[in-house]
Every structure is written in structure tokens, then in C-alpha cells.
Amino acid sequence: MVEQRQHGRTPVHNSEVYLLRQMPPTFSTIPPLSPPSPITPAEDDDFCNGMPIEALSLSQPAIAVADEKLAVEERLSNAVHVLSTETTALQNLTALYSTDRLAREGFNRAVEAITRRNHPKYPPHHHHSHSNRGATDGKIVVIGVGKSGHIAKKLVATFNSLAIQAVFLHPTEALHGDLGQIGPRDTFLLITFSGKTPELLTLLPHLDKSLPLILLTSHTRPETCELIKHRPDTILLPAPIHEPETKSFGVSAPTTSTTVALTVGDALAIVASRELHPSVASVFAKNHPGGAIGAALRKPSLSEKTMRELAVGMEMIPLLNTPPEKTATGADVLRAGYASPSGWVRLQNGDVISPRRIRKLDSADLVASLEELKGWLVMSKKEFVPVAADSSVEKAAEWVLGMRVALGDGQYEDNAIVAVMDRGGCVGLLEVGSLLEEA
């Protein structure tokens, strides 16, 4: 302390209390410097922006909201994981049937087995005796149990809607009398992920060996499949998954495996139907008249379809917009017709130019003024042939043909225009030629 005073120093005072002890003579007698006192929130204006600590604490409702958001995120993350996993399985399946020789050969043989035995030009196996079915009634007998049985039933519905006759056969019921529904032109389609389902192995010896047997399974090689070992001529249709479902989802519930099986079955149904029928869409529409799908596919008959449905609505006929200082030409009409969603063009006075007339414009007409072309290009409202909007297309066409024969003055020729009328107003237009083509 004496030395401090001699050098003009004074003790530094703060809030700390120090316990001084006698220092050994070998050490300096100067005590170590005291650490600075901690700054309290009140001493720092910027601390937490001046907010008291209590205000930053989470309340119980805030914690509950945060927990709920985390739960929602986890829920959606799990859902996306399932979708991503099954998408990956389908991508691998696509690659398999694009590159693997055995998979491609198996699919080709499966389609041939179905189409050959569902086509009347191929005779049945006459030595088969336990069926009363006709020679041209070949069908697919789809067999499965458990979740594979549900996939089998769905595929039966798909085959039938595409005009390929199919039935579901439960393996246990088959052993108790249902084998009687198997016909001499039938094809078996067995579905088993493991390839060793006990019920199918029990049934296998009782299935006619002269009938083709397709196996939809996870195995990609015949030598690994137990069922094929018992029947080597089986057609292998692989439907593998890239990883076990227990690894993907922590549970062995059939998920990815049923997705790939259903997908391969759908591919088989679509391809076979295309080879058996000239128009798959038409047979599907015929076999599926009900529900929203049937309503969308069903085309109304001419006796049901009305002129209102067939006509081009006035809102679909745009005006021919030409600057006042410019004289409209045939080229302007052609451009307007090309840009029109209906192909029709309307003038300010209500006269119209129909698609058939626009198509008759030649190179000389393109430079001619609209006034010069009006004689044959533009149809005046006075020339329209009025028809009630609720008239059927069939009746309207019959009436137009009758008037054409009776008058023979060109008013009812293909270029003529039918005005579809409702409550005294025109709701749409139609060329006579288009009406007769529809009829």
C-alpha cells in the first residue's frame, strides 16, 4: 500500500469483498485484480430491447400451440414418407419391366395366355371335361387370400369393365366345390407376395395343368419361388418392392407390396384389352354406364341431344375489331377466324361469318375489302334458319332436309346458318352442314 501511495495510486473500491491472506515472501504483495461486476438488465438499455425477462417466457397456451404445430408437421412428414416410398417402388418396377429380360418375357407370355384363350379363333383343350362352358367363353380365374385376395377382387372388376371376363376364386372355397366354375379356356392368375402362401400351395395340385397359370409375386427369378418349384411351367409376373415394409414403415402391413401388385395387374388388364378389342374406350363405356364415370362417357343419342347442346354459343363468337380508319379486308376476317375459339366471326350489326365460308377465302379475297366480299361471305341475320333450342338434333336434321328438298333454293344448303332460338332470342348458331354431319 505504501508503494501505491508513493506512485500516486489510491485503492479501487467496488462491491466485492476480498479476503486477504499473508502471501509468501516469494510472491508479490499486490492482490490480483478484481473481475468486473456483472451488468444488470437495468444498466443496459439494449438488453432484450428493454423488455423484462418475464415477458419473454412462454405461456402454457403458447407451448400448446407450438406442440400442435409440431404434431401436424410430423403427421404430414409421415404421410409424405409413405407416398415417397411407394413412388420409389413404382419407379423401380418401371425400370424392371423396361430392362429385365425375365420380367419382360413373363409379361409378354401373360398377355398372350389371356388373349389367345379369350379369342374364338383359338380352339379349347378338348380333353378338359369338368365344365359346361362354351368354347369361346375363356375367362381369367383370379386367386388370392388376405390382402392379395382384395387385390384379386379389384383386378377382377377391372378385367370385367374392359370386356375381359374374370372371376374371383377363394382358394379355400375352391376346395369345397368352387373348382366347378373353371372352364376349358380359362387362365389362372394367382397373387401371392411371398410365393409360398399355404392355401395356394394346397390348391395348386387341384388346378388343371393344361390351363395357363400366371403368378403375380415379389420374386423376380423362378428358382427362388416355392410355388414355381411345384409347377415349373408357371408364367412369372414379378412385382417386387425395393425394401421390406418393416424397414419402410416399422410394420409389415401390406402397403407397398399391394401397390405394386395392383399396378402390374392393371397394366396386364389394359394391354390385354387393347389387343382383344378395337376400341377399349367404347367397351368400357358400354360396361360402365352408371355413376359419374358413366355419365361422362355416355354420349347422348341423337334423339336425346338437343340443338342447344350442339350450337355454338353467341359468347363464343368474337367481334371483328378493325380500327375506324382502316377498311376491313378478307385477311382481317381470316385472322379473326383463326383466333376465334369457335372459328366464327361476328360483325357489329349482328351479321356473322361462319367457318365454312372463311375456309373458302382465296388469295385474291385476302386483299379485297369486306364490303366487296359481303355478297357471299357474310350472312345477314335475316337469312338465318330459326330452330327451337329444345328440338332434338335428329328432328332438326330431318326438318332441314325436308325443307331443302321442298324449296331447293339454296337456303338450306351446307353453308346456311341455323339460329338456335330460346324465348325469342338467339342463343347459338350452327351451320346446316355441321347439323347434318352430326345427324
UniProtKB/TrEMBL annotation:
InterPro entries: SIS_dom, SIS_dom_sf, SIS_Kpsf. Residues 128-278 form the SIS domain. One of its GO terms (molecular function) is carbohydrate derivative binding. SUPFAM superfamilies: SIS domain. GO terms for biological process: carbohydrate derivative metabolic process. Pfam families: SIS. Transmembrane segments: none annotated. PANTHER family: SUGAR ISOMERASE, KPSF/GUTQ (AFU_ORTHOLOGUE AFUA_6G08860) (PTHR38418), SUGAR ISOMERASE, KPSF_GUTQ (AFU_ORTHOLOGUE AFUA_6G08860) (PTHR38418:SF2). This is SIS domain-containing protein. It comes from Triangularia setosa.
